[in-house]
């Protein structure tokens, strides 16, 4: 029989054992909490800003923006918790427990290398280390290369698309005007903006991608901007708009024929492998490569379109149909339009086909030269009439963009769509 006098002692002993067991069970959670703070925010952030399966379809740019602000503080907190656990309680773990925790920590550090270094957007797609231009005589860029061309104050510059596609952006000056020349290969979207924000020239960094479009951040306000629209999506200047500058997309040969004195961006030897991977980027559509697709005129995510925005309204033109027809006379939002392709099938133009209050209708003659049906005047690819009654007249240019259908539709959800039937 147990003595009644021993019951308090047994109760104290039971309580001590209970507290010991509780502590031993609770302390490992500190390690896992530390791991969660150390790794999860960075992994989620990387997932949302890179084109991983499903990530780009989420409406998560605001979450991504503010998550980036807290990733470092949370990692510091997680690191401190893990260090405290390692000093105070790691030795009390079983051998198996030590191996598991050490392995998890090692895997976490490896993931940290990939999320913050290896696959960080601004490290993967650095800006050129050497920005060098050459005239056509000293040029090393093939004439068949597709370029984005910018003209200002009598100065013309050509930026090869495979260079832009790798770097995503080049910050430069054209005719003493600051320019931010951008291109996103996931959207097939080229844009040129003024980097002047609130009266100050900004330096922009590549953040990552949302909805398969590059996101850039200005240095002063840390606002995030969509490359495809120049609109501030989140941050101090949310809702603001970068000033868009006119540009043309054409082959280098076509560009030089109009601007023989143009300067041409030369390759930076540090990134030749990256450029080489994009050398055939502009030659075939996704539908042409898909052997399972019987109807090549099907509209798929990566179908090419030429898009225009006139007075806030958008319209897209099927590239394959434009390729077959070579020219389209159309009217949209009270503007009479001419869309046409040059013989190289890569250089496209968009013009207002009204001249001196008269609407013209265009065709291509047997030699492939533009002519209007009303006066039979001939026109060059810069919109200038070179002979006929209207000689010396010029068609005004309308800014247009070659883009993937999925991108154009997302950023212009109410767009109209033209397809020759």
Number of domain modules: 3
- Strand order, main sheet: write it out: 1-14-3-2-13
Q: Percent of residues in helical segments?
A: 25-40%
Largest sheet: 5 strands, mixed
Spans of 5+ residues with little confidence (pLDDT < 50)?
17-26
The whole-angstrom Rg is 30 Å
What gap, in angstroms, lies between the N and C termini? 101 Å
Continuous helix count: 10
| Average pLDDT rating | 89
Structural class: alpha+beta
Based on Cα principal axes, name the global outline.
elongated
Based on DSSP secondary structure assignment, what is the total number of beta strands?
Answer: 28
- Note the beta-strand portion: 25-35%
Note down, in words, how this protein is organized:
With 421 residues, this protein is an alpha+beta fold. Helices cover 33% and strands 28% of the residues. The chain has ten helices and 28 strands. The strands form eight sheets. Strands 1-14-3-2-13 form a five-stranded mixed β-sheet. It has a four-stranded antiparallel β-sheet with strand order 9-10-11-12.
List the helices and strands and how they pair.
Blueprint: H1 7-49, H2 61-88, H3 95-118, H4 121-124, E1 133-134, E2 146-152, E3 155-160, H5 161-167, E4 169-174, E5 177-184, E6 189-193, E7 196-197, E8 200-201, E9 204-210, E10 213-218, E11 224-226, E12 232-234, E13 248-251, H6 252-258, E14 263-265, H7 272-277, H8 286-289, E15 304-310, E16 313-318, H9 319-325, E17 327-332, E18 335-341, E19 348-352, E20 354-355, E21 358-359, E22 362-364, E23 370-372, E24 378-379, E25 385-387, E26 396-397, E27 401-404, H10 405-411, E28 416-418
Parallel strand pairs: 3-14, 16-28
Antiparallel strand pairs: 1-14, 2-3, 2-13, 4-5, 5-6, 7-8, 9-10, 10-11, 11-12, 15-16, 15-27, 17-18, 18-19, 19-26, 20-21, 22-23, 23-24, 24-25
Helix pairs in contact: 1-2, 1-3
């Amino acid at each position: 029989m147990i003595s009644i006098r021993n019951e308090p002692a047994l109760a104290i002993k039971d309580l001590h054992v209970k507290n010991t067991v509780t502590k031993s069970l609770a302390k490992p959670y500190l390690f896992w909490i530390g791991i969660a703070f150390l790794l999860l925010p960075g992994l989620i952030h990387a997932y949302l800003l890179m084109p991983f399966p499903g990530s780009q379809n989420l409406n998560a740019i605001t979450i991504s923006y503010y998550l980036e602000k807290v990733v470092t503080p949370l990692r510091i907190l997680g690191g401190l918790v893990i260090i405290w656990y390692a000093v105070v309680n790691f030795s009390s773990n079983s051998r198996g427990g030590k191996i598991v925790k050490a392995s998890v920590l090692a895997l976490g550090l490896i993931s940290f290398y990939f999320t913050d270094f290896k696959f960080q957007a601004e490290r993967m797609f650095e800006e050129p280390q050497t920005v060098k231009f050459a005239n056509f005589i000293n040029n090393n860029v093939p004439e068949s290369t597709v370029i984005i061309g910018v003209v200002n104050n009598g100065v013309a510059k050509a930026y090869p698309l495979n260079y832009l596609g790798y770097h995503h952006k080049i910050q430069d000056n054209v005719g003493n005007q600051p320019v931010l020349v951008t291109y996103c290969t996931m959207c097939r979207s080229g844009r040129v903006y003024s980097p002047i924000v609130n009266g100050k020239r900004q330096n922009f960094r590549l953040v990552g991608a949302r909805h398969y479009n590059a996101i850039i951040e200005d240095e002063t306000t840390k606002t995030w901007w969509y490359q495809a629209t120049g609109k501030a999506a989140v941050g101090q200047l949310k809702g603001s708009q970068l000033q868009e500058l006119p540009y043309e997309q054409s082959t280098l040969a076509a560009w030089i024929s109009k601007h023989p004195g143009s300067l041409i961006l030369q390759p930076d030897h540090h990134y030749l492998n990256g450029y080489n991977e994009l050398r055939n980027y502009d030659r075939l559509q996704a539908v042409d490569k898909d052997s399972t697709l019987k109807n090549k005129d099907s509209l798929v995510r990566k179908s090419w379109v030429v898009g225009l925005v006139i007075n806030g309204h958008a319209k897209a033109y099927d590239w394959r149909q434009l390729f077959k027809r070579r020219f389209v006379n159309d009217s949209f939002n009270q503007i009479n339009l001419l869309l046409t392709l040059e013989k190289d099938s890569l250089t496209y133009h968009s013009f207002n086909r009204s001249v001196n209050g008269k609407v013209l209708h265009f065709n291509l003659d047997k030699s492939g030269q533009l002519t209007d049906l009303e006066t039979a005047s001939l026109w060059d690819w810069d919109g200038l009439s070179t002979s006929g009654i209207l000689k010396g007249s010029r068609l005004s240019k309308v800014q247009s963009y070659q883009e993937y259908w999925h991108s154009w539709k997302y950023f212009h959800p109410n767009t109209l769509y033209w397809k020759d039937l």
